[in-house]
Amino acid sequence: MPHPMILTRTRAFLILIVLCLVAATLYVTRDMWEGGALIGIAPHQALYQMTMTRLMQTNEIADVRGQMSYRIEDACDGWNVAQKFNLQFVYTDAPTALVTSDYNTYESKDGKRYEFSTRRMRNGQLTDEILGKAERKDAAGNGTIAYQKPKVAEIPLPAEVLFPTQHTLAILRAAQAGQTWFAAPLFDGSDLAKASDVTSFIQTQRKPYIMQVKELVPLKFVPLPDAGDDTTAVPAVVVETLKAPRAMTSDAINASPLLSNTKAWRLRMAFYTRGDAITADDKKDAAAISPEDDPLNSTVPDYEMTMILHSNGVVSSFTLDYPDFSLYARLLSIAEVARNSC
Asked: Model-level pTM?
């Protein structure tokens, strides 16, 4: 197989992008009253354990496992999200590799500005870096996406493409209204593609809590190298190293107010990558891509995801489904993050 961290649509690289999309889906704007029920966000930090749950015949990957650490903070005029993960890839025909990622975003609450930064590493060596911002510039919501890394480029931002907060809030509104289906394009900056078209099927979750297990043994979470004074960090985002909390028992997680007093929905989501990405080997200094020339690459989704999304923005579990294997993310621990006094 190709190098798992080269900027291509390889299996391993897709997993990294998916996890960034998961992080983007873990938060929504707070204080939104819909139909008499409060849907919004509880700033929090969570730790998930990733394990492979299904494996069909393959000549590439034998196993994938690891952890994802996630934190969201209320920045008064927006949301800061910091996500880190370590994944161990076991290959059938290549040495085992440790892949790590540092993903930080800021999204303004008015939906007009979005900043994103991603640094990915393989066995401690930096393999790719994405840095940029998106801004809406007219009353209709159209704007531009400006990349600084891996190259300087600018592409249009159509009004129908949603930022992560907007997208998840729209899903929660649909769920609260009793809808069973929602579709909209999403841009999160974790990849060089313009956006992903996402179709979501919504079902009320009657028992949204963590199932009982005998023992939780978290893997060692290896901190990522400090970026120092490097300009790749998004200025508005808190990027200090996250301390992985200890694993909690199932009873303790279920008793947490972050889960126990919430409504939850089961989402089945299909992701389709839009065409015309900004590529690292593009020789031009900038690119302008017409939305009319932006067809889906395929009618078959790149991957599908099932998640339990709570009314306060907490995701208690999710599963990533690929044609020949699946990854399951289980909540190991969760804690509240103090709100800012805005």
From this structure: 0.77
